[in-house]
Amino acid sequence: MRKISLLLLSIAFAYAINIQRDTLPNGLVILTVEAHKLPMIEMRAVTYAGSVFDPAGKQGIATVVNQILLRGTKSRASNEIAQAIESVGGEFFPFTDEDHAGISGRVLSKDLYLLIDLLSDCIQNPLFDSVELLRIKSEVISQIKAEEDRPFSISKREFRRLVFSDHPLGHIPQGFDSTVGNISLSDIKEFYNQYYLPNNTFFVFVGDFQKDSLISILDEKFGNWERRKLQKTKIDAPSETSKPLGKIIHMDISQAYILLGNLGPKYGDADWYETRVMNYILGGAGLTSRISEIIREKRGLAYIAYSYFQRFKTGGYFNALVQTRKEMANEVVQILISEMERIQDTIDVVELSRAKKFYTGYFPLTHDTYREMTSIVLQIESQNLGLDYLSQFKKLIEAVKLNELKAAAQKYLHPDRFYLLIVGDLKPEDIKLERIEWIE
């Protein structure tokens, strides 16, 4: 009986998400998943207007523009927008990352029309109020400054700057306090007019609705949104160092936050599945990964030790991250480099089998709520994974071979030309590395 139940569960997951993709005549893409278990709807409105398109000297503008859309329209004041969604117990808020800017919404099924009406008003009729702009800039700058006392946040921010330098991926979406302060109302309008177009936008709706009715409402509210030629700024691929580069951010603390890595794959790279499985073995598997087992379990050098790949449309990076006592920093750095070398030749079938079992077992659990479904459909569209991605995932993971993991490690791990960022009370001479160039 248990085997039958597990089989039925597996079949249910495989067919649980039926993604439909439609396009309005103006180029607006609409992805829908009907799910009638609960009388609610999750929505994401996504424009390819993320922080990678921030102009130099105006870093943070993508975040500011996206936030100001919800701060007043030509027919609604900022507080009226908030009151409208709160009156029905819904959610309506902006989000920005490197590749996208968007609005997230959540309402009961009966309030779908209200949600779309608010969305249409905010996206197509923003007021761009100068008082609201000053308020948003102040809020963003406060968020940036609030991170200055948090070594973990500083380490991740500064590692990005070290790896990408002046490349548009070298800053977090909030930008810098100095550049956010430079953003003017005319900058806001110019950025909005350049990127906020129906043919540069897609919507995701998941929940209790009838697709034909939903499409009809969206056509009513967005059908007249004018399609224009997209003048998207070209983003070059980031360049990699030819030798180890290091930087120490001094903080008077007893811990050392160590980040070591290099450039990595971007969205769309064909060997991503092999790379993902390889990193699970190296540092992505929690306590059972090599990095955690050696640094934390065997040697007791750290409580936090893991690795990951961060990908974007125009680039990506690998990062091994360890928090340890400052006296142990040198030993930890040596271990990380050693493990990056070792995994290029020494992966066994037991490790591969364990990684495959994790991904094929864990993956269905990542999209069993409406919100999780919405997030994964967003990924499928923005990363061009294909509407059959969910049904193909298990097959793609199970097809990964041992030699492909080693090839991925050799391609994307560079123990001879890495970036090293340390936050803590340390000096370059405390880290015993040859050939490394330390940056002030």
> Unreliable runs, pLDDT <50, ≥5 residues?
1-15
Strand order of the largest sheet: 1-2-6-3-5-4
Q: What's the main sheet like?
A: 6 strands, mixed
Structural class: alpha+beta
CATH topology assignment of the largest domain:
Cytochrome Bc1 Complex, Chain A, domain 1
Oligomer: single chain
CATH homology superfamily name of the largest domain = Metalloenzyme, LuxS/M16 peptidase-like
CATH architecture of the largest domain: 2-Layer Sandwich
Inertia-based shape: globular
- Quickly count the domains: 2
Give me the Rg, rounded.
24 Å
**Percentage of helical residues?**
40-55%
Order of helices and strands: HEEEHHEEHHHHHEHEEHHEEHHHHHEE
Number of helices: 16
The termini sit apart by 65 Å
Averaged pLDDT: 93
Write down how many β-strands occur, each being a DSSP E stretch of 2 or more residues: 12
**What is the CATH first-level class name of the largest domain?**
Alpha Beta
β content, as a range?
15-25%
